[in-house]
Amino acid sequence: MTIQEQLGAVQEQFSGEFAVYAEHLETGEVIAFGAVEEPHLTASVMKLPVLVEALSQCHQGIHRLDELLEYRADDFVPGSGVLKDLTAGLRLSFRDALMLMMTISDNLATNMVLRTVGIDQVNRLCREWGLTQTVVHRKIAFDQPGPLAFTTPVDLVQLLRGIYHETMLDPQSSAIAMDMLARQEYNTLLTRQMPYELLEGTDDEAPLVKVLSKSGWDVGVVNDAGLVMTPWGDYAIAIMSEHCQDHRFHVDQEAHVLLPYAARAVFDHFVPESERHR
Q1: Residue 43 Rama label (left phi>0; alpha psi -120 to 50; beta)
Q2: I need a labelling partner for 74 at 20 to 30 A (CA). Which of 30, 124, 206, 231 fits?
Q3: Looking at domain 3-271, what is its CATH homologous superfamily?
Q4: How many CB atoms lie within 10 A of CB 140?
Q5: From the centroid of its chain, how far is CA 224?
């Protein structure tokens, strides 16, 4: 089966719609399936451009990674993360707030960062870099009407490419961003069907394949975007889905079961098994 046929087979089983955009970062080969240029609800994937703007402002000297941010009462939001269970007035470094935002998708930490860097500045960054369909509308607040943010698979891959090639950020900031993405704890969409032996290292050897990603999850929406680093070449990938009829927040929610097969199909296309055994 061709890669398009494999992705189509996954779509046939899925109750919603999904789009995949992936780009090999050495050859430039592109895989596109579904509405890759149409705006999708981001869920927590919106934290990717927020991270880039935050690191850019630190590089410019507007803020510092060791600067202390205060958890204010109006930053509070439920959902993912740990700060919601702590006491307002807590202070932590900008770097730590970013780490919480990216690794455990801490919503409250995200609001602290957004308040510090400014939503308008995040959107300006997106416009300046040609992410024309990416926009953040507000801070995270589940009691506020209207969408949180929109983006496209194409925009996400462009952003990841900019981090990887150190064009959107300076080398040090790019390294920080990639390190945070590598530590994300909710990366099962891109990794669930990956060859286990390639993702797990041994006592003597590091894993052959590393996935650096940011996921997002809301009612009917499951997204993931990341860099897949392999000895056989690296690629960026974004998978965005909507209208899934399974609304559970569960590890075996439909999108979390089916969409990893789309991620695996892209992996096998860019990294054929014949190459892995050479």
Answers
A1: left
A2: 124
A3: DD-peptidase/beta-lactamase superfamily (3.40.710.10)
A4: 25
A5: 5
Enter the pTM of the model: 0.94
Mean pLDDT of the chain: 93
List residues bridging with 136 in a β-sheet.
Answer: 149
pLDDT digits (tens, 9 = 90+) for 168-201: 999 999 999 999 999 998 878 999 999 888 887 7
> How far apart, in whole angstroms, are the C-alpha atoms of residue 8 and residue 26?
26
Range from 1-10, 61-70, 142-151, 152-161 carrying the lowest mean pLDDT: 142-151
Beta carbons within 8 Å of 53's beta carbon, 6+ residues apart: 117, 121, 122, 125
Please write the tens of the pLDDT for every residue from 58-90: 999 999 999 999 999 999 988 888 999 999 999
Query: For the chain, give me the number of helices (H) and strands (E)?
Result: 11, 10
CA 87 to chain centre: 28
189-209 b/e (C-beta count within 10 Å ≥ 16 → b): bbbebbbeebeeeeeeeeebb
Q: Which amino acid is at 214?
A: K
Q: What would you report as the CA-atom Rg of the chain, rounded to the nearest whole angstrom?
A: 18
- What is the sign of the dihedral through the CA atoms of 160, 162, 168 and 171? positive
Provide the angle, in degrees to the nearest 10, between the axes of the packed helices 94-103 and 47-60.
160
Spatial separation of the C-alpha atoms in residues 7 and 24, rounded to whole Å = 17
The whole-angstrom separation of Cα 11 and Cα 153 is 16
Regarding beta strands 149-151 and 210-218, do their DSSP bridges make them parallel or antiparallel, or are they unpaired?
Answer: unpaired
> Beta strands of the chain (E only): which ranges?
17-24, 30-33, 40-41, 68-70, 91-93, 135-136, 149-151, 210-218, 221-229, 235-242
pLDDT attached to residue 278: 58
Write down the domain spans for the chain: 3-271
